[in-house]
Structure prediction request, 366 residues.
Amino acid sequence: MTALFSPLELRETTIPNRVMVSPMCQYSCEDRDGLATDWHHTHLGSRAVGGAGLVMSEATAVEPRGRITPEDLGIWSDDHADALAKTTAFVREQGSVPAIQLAHAGRKASKTRPWEDSEPVAPDEGGWDVLSPSGNAWPYEDESPTTRAMDQNDIESVVDSFRAAAERSLDAGFEVAEVHAAHGYLLHEFLSPVTNHREDDYGGDFEGRARLTREVTAAVRDVWPDEKPVFVRISATDWLDDRDSWTVDQSVRLADRLHEAGADLIDVSSGGIVPDSFPEYAGPNYQLRLAERVREETESDIAVGAVGGITTPEQAEGIVANGRADLAVVGREHLRDPYFALHAAEKLGATEEVEGPVQYRRAFGF
Ligand code: FNR
Prediction:
């Protein structure tokens, strides 16, 4: 029995193996309406056919202002949930667990797509005014007429948007909800002292900066059924040790606080708060030590996902077998190879342990 192809039980949900498809924005909504298209269905569906135990959607905006680009996926109305329902049903039919990453891009919103150089989209060109904790604009902290500091009403409305988005996600058939609190987007902007200069209850010390992420996680847990897990993706460090910034020690503390708020797994990523917030080394397993520290140092028994530079079956197996993380979260390798998990089963001699699609049985030998 391999570790990678052993199931993971979280609450009453069984993830059939430890390979998770990392959330990856596709910027592919056709009419800037946030509605899922055939592209999303095929993209997520084929990774489920490819054997991943859990297929996470891309960052899915809880309100229109929370989109990185006007072409991002959204879940702010019932029509959005309806458009995703056939995909969740298909993912489940493949034996995989459909999951959704709920997101708000904060001050990083209203940009063109990466292949259009991520330029600001002005409100009169189809963009919008963006929200942030303290009014400093991405990327260089300068003043900007379109970046606004959030007031108490904005904060309450964001928490409500996450709660409503979670309810709709359930209607759409998702079994796991992941709160996106990483990569310099809204919740991370509140967590990090680099971007949070507030003097009210949502800024200042650790508890103040962590308050919004805790409230959002609790709101999602409030509407998410007891038997289904909630994940939170964090940037475990800003990689800015030369200044007051978000650190792994704070992440460990946050993980325990999020466990109290109802989270079951921390998906451990890093960086993104400012342009120079990235690791010096980004090769194989480049964030694994961060996941390990969260796993080892938390007082709660919250589960952990490791992401970053995981590209081979042996690597993924080693991470889980050595108890370094509970899930191996695979991003870009899944773009190169939608069948990563089936190939891994073949390579690790675990074809008896997977139930791949009967249609492909002759090719893979399970
Ligand atoms: C990403 N990443 C990402 N992360 C996230 O939390 N939400 C998202 O929507 C996206 N979108 C996205 C799009 C694309 C095209 C890429 C390549 C990446 C980050 C991704 O989930 C992952 O954390 C990193 O790519 C590192 O893992 P890999 O690719 O080294 O396995």
In short: Residues 152-172 form the longest helix (21 residues).
